[in-house]
Amino acid sequence: MKILLLSPPYLPEYMRNARCDFVSLSKTQWYPIWLGYCGAFLEKNGYEVKLIDAPAYGLNHTQTEDIILNYKPDWLVVYSSTKSEDNDINFTEKLMDLLNIPSVFVGPYVSINPVRILEKSNKIQFAIKGEFEYPVLELLEKKPISQIKNLAYKQDLQIIQNELRPLLSRKELDKIPFLTAFFKKHLDFKFYKTPSEYYPFIDLMTGRGCIWGLCTFCLWVHSFITGKTYNTRSIENVLEEFNFVVQELPEVRSIMIQDDTLSEERATELSEGLLKSNIKISWSCYARANMNYETLKLMKKAGCRNLHVGYESISDNVLKNIKKGITVEKMERFTADAKKAGLRIHADFMLGLPGETKESTLKLINWAKKINPHTAQFQLINPYEITPLYQYLKDNNYFNKNGEPNYPDLSTEEIRKLGKLAYRKFYLSFNHLKKVISSPYEHFFGRLDTISRAIPAIFWKKW
Question: How much is the pTM?
């Protein structure tokens, strides 16, 4: 049986493989990590698999359709997203008609409301909430659909949602073949890049879920691996995959660990294992801004290069509102310690959070310039309907007619203007100029395409 794993075509530079879906100004594309794990699992169980990540490859609808019709799959496994949902449904329905095959929708965005997918379509019969390796396998093996946990399905003009299965254990995670080996077979690494990482890099996960798991805005912890959950692979299994990358993927310059948050305990365990095994490769990870200096120093010694840090806001009141669990004082201490340890920081800030004002946002922009991370992102908030953030905005009528955050003291238009201002002030600053002078290719010549897109976006085009 031939299985087609699909991230459908949509808009140019659209990216759905992250924790939110958007058109990427910097042409960032993370790897299709959840489809990849499913594909590796299916191959292990004897299925022929093809993976198409249409947005990353720049494929339009016609090009993608031609590839799929030529492959002639028996099943479609579709990784959909919120902004592209209607597009994904329409494209999948067309493929189902042309090939006369079934499909199933999967992923964190689908997990927000799998019933909605089935309500919108007369043809799509299946959608999965949560981890989908085993439910997809059981569908292919024709297990009775009433017994497939996590599955939502249509039966006799009704939509039924089965109970959820337990999250995958360490033993089960260790049994899934290496994601990086699957990507080596199925993907061209040149299509995946982000300004904060070496090129080419590769993604993998050492564990699923977030050990903090409370942030009110986070899609994955409210729709996929929920709550304060961090199910990890054995460190021996992780080290073996790191070594696989070193030995079998010599072109890869860095590993990006896509765990929601690499906890202090996990970072220590990984760093000590890498040092003991003498595995030498650069790596990056997501980190909470409360790790201590000794851990950061150990991570640097073990090859860590870059930390992706969600600062979000510099208002203690706002941080409390979104249940971030960190204070501005802790963030400042962490930032100083990370720099002292020799680590780079990619700083993520969110604009338009509840409690922010124009004045507090201007302070945030100035603070970002002051701490001077290596790179920074100023993201307009993306409220997904399953999150507490969305419910708060809805309950208080803080959405405009387009479903965008809009407060009495901070309008949607003001938030957008502040976002443009943030990028101008950060990337047209003296601190950034020094980075350009010290590393002209990394910060300028290697990013001319991004810069040409960014200039109109942060000056005169609608963002």
Answer: 0.95
